[in-house]
Amino acid sequence: MQNRIVLHYGDHRIVKGSTGDFFPDKQWFHFTDKDTVKTSRVDITKLKGIFFVKNYGGNPEYQEQYDGERKGLGKKVKVTFNDGEAIIGYTTGFSPHKPGFFLFSSDPNSNTEKIFVVIAATEEIIFV
Q1: Structural domain range at position 24
Q2: Is residue 61 part of a domain?
Q3: In whole angstroms, what is the distance from residue 68 CA to residue 7 CA?
Q4: Which residues, in sequence order, are CB contacts of 13 under 8 Å at separation 6+?
Q5: CA-CA-CA-CA torsion for 38, 40, 46, 48, nearest 10 degrees?
Q6: Which of 111, 62, 65 is nearest to 89 (CA)?
């Protein structure tokens, strides 16, 4: 199964495409670029996060709602990345000893289903 993803690199590049072999405990995975259809190997240490999305277009005018409560998705957490961007969502499996963790959107209407947050790219992770 191919997952629609958007890669957010630490250098601010954003690339849209898909993967079928991403696993949170592996350092790399294969990525097929949506536009060029070229497949490359991606090292997660170069990333800020992997955004698993419903569709590539999204709605640029949509404002994420961070104040909602979603049961069954774990604990609510605020992630602040090294570049200052902050996201609030839910996680069931944060461990500072792992390379990253999944963060589920706090907004059920978000185009983002979940994010694999690369811990090395974060400034602060706090439970709220």
Answers
A1: 3-55+66-127
A2: no
A3: 26
A4: 7
A5: 50
A6: 65
- 22: its two tokens: 């991403």
User: Could you tell me if 94 and 125 are in contact, meaning their C-beta atoms sit under 8 angstroms apart?
Assistant: yes
Are the beta carbons of 124 and 50 closer than 8 angstroms? no
pTM, 2 dp:
0.93
In a domain, 71, yes or no: yes
pLDDT digits (tens, 9 = 90+) for 38-58: 999 999 999 999 999 999 988
The pLDDT of residue 110: 92
Residue 62 has which token pair? 């949509």
- Structure-token pair, residue 71: 């049961």
Cα–Cα distance, 68 to 9 (Å, whole number): 28
Report how many domains make up the chain: 1
Measured CA to CA, the distance from residue 8 to residue 44 in angstroms comes to 10
**73-99 residue pLDDT tens:** 999 999 999 999 999 999 998 898 999
